Amino acid sequence: MIGRLTGILALKRAPQVLIDCNGVGYEVDVSMSTYYQLPPEGERVALWTHLQIKDDAHSLIGFHGEQERALFRQLIRVNGVGPKMALTLLSGISETEFAACIQAADVATLTRLPGVGKKTAERLIVELRDKLDQAAVLPAGAVPGATASRNARHSEAVEALQALGYKPADASRMVEAAAGVVDDDNPEALIKQALQQAVKR
């Protein structure tokens, strides 16, 4: 089991990163919450990891901290919640907000996340209510960056949202709306704002 990676952040392309560990490059899927906290490319990074094994592939999923990994592992134990949906949940809402939704049985907020219907939201609440310690869950921060052209930045944000389960048209609309609120020089800020707006609708 690969539980942690430490190396050079060779590439950032949301929602995946490439970490060079002594000449071996590991492709790692990450939540957007983790992505916001990553250093610039070329700097040293350490991620807690979860190794997902399927019949046709092995994949690594990375987390900025142990708390996020622990929540991910709880999520994938819920019936009907796979790794992709768990990452989408962690990307669209902070760990603190998620814990608050579970404790308050806030179905409405949970169903605003992509791929989460009413039955899934209710299942999350029932199965996780007694397992989440809200006080122990830490919120995620954001890291600024990006130097490409405006169109390239918007395309990067749209592709990241599509990878999280949004339809292309919806992803484009979300990014355009976010660009009117935050600095569109930063694709990470665009993605974060788009996800926040989607949850608040």
Helix and strand content put the structural class at alpha+beta
Total helical elements: 9
Q: In which order are the strands of the major sheet placed?
A: 1-2-3-5-4
What fraction strand?
15-25%
What's the CATH superfamily of the largest domain, by name? 5' to 3' exonuclease, C-terminal subdomain
The top level CATH class name of the largest domain: Mainly Alpha
Largest sheet: 5 strands, mixed, barrel
Number of domains: 3
Average pLDDT, rounded to a whole number, is 82
Architecture (CATH level 2) name of the largest domain: Orthogonal Bundle
How many β strands by DSSP? 5
* Rg of Cα set: 16 Å
Binned, the helix content reads 40-55%
Distance between the termini: 40 Å
The CATH topology name of the largest domain reads: DNA polymerase, domain 1
> Spans of 5+ residues with little confidence (pLDDT < 50)?
134-149
What form results from the Cα inertia axes?
Answer: globular
Sequence-ordered SSE layout with sheet pairings:
Blueprint: E1 4-13, E2 16-21, E3 24-30, H1 32-36, E4 44-53, E5 58-63, H2 66-75, H3 83-92, H4 95-104, H5 107-110, H6 118-128, H7 150-163, H8 168-179, H9 187-200
Parallel strand pairs: 3-5
Antiparallel strand pairs: 1-2, 1-4, 2-3, 4-5
Give a written overview of the molecule:
This protein folds into 3 domains: 4-63, Nucleic acid-binding proteins (OB fold (Dihydrolipoamide Acetyltransferase, E2P)); 70-136, 5' to 3' exonuclease, C-terminal subdomain (DNA polymerase, domain 1, Orthogonal Bundle); 150-200, Helicase, Ruva Protein, domain 3, CATH 1.10.8. 45% of the residues lie in helices and 19% in strands. The protein has helices at 32-36, 66-75, 83-92, 95-104, 107-110, 118-128, 150-163, 168-179, 187-200, and strands at residues 4-13, 16-21, 24-30, 44-53, 58-63. It has a 5-stranded mixed beta barrel with strand order 1-2-3-5-4. A hairpin with a 2-residue loop joins strand 2 and strand 3 (24-30).
